[in-house]
Design brief:
Strand content: 25-35%
Number of domains: 1
Bound molecules: copper (II) ion
Mean pLDDT: 92
Helix content: 10-25%
Shape: globular
CATH superfamily: Cupredoxins -  blue copper proteins
Amino acid sequence: MFLKNLLALILTFSIGTVMAKDHQVKMLNGKAPDMFVFEPAVIKIQKGDTVTWSGDAMHNSASINNMLPKGASPWEGKLTKEAGEVSISVKFETEGVYGYKCTPHEMFGMVGLVLVGDPSSNLDKATSEGKKIEGKFAAGKGRFSEYFSQIK
Ligand SMILES: [Cu+2]
């Protein structure tokens, strides 16, 4: 009986580990007029999942401070020097919506959203902050609004 319970316990933990996924987001130079994009720019994941950013050279992924759920940790990936290099992998432990940017290309609208589980806790705050930020973009104006409109 003890062994059977132990086995069930081990099985539960293994399934939990297998279910945590690693999602890939590409950092791309894009094609005119849509330069500098994350692909996909809006990604929906579950709590405990990881997102890894890689792609073209000279990009990174960095969180935007006022667009994180309460208690979530910010991140700042390294600027890649070569195509295919990983900027950063981030494990998401707090539900909500996360706004992020490529540091050198934020002004060109290179931004994205990660939705972890139920995004409602900070969705309104992140949406209004995103609208404020995108108004200052030199290109890709309205990208945050477009991305937020994809959340249903
Ligand atoms: Cu970039």
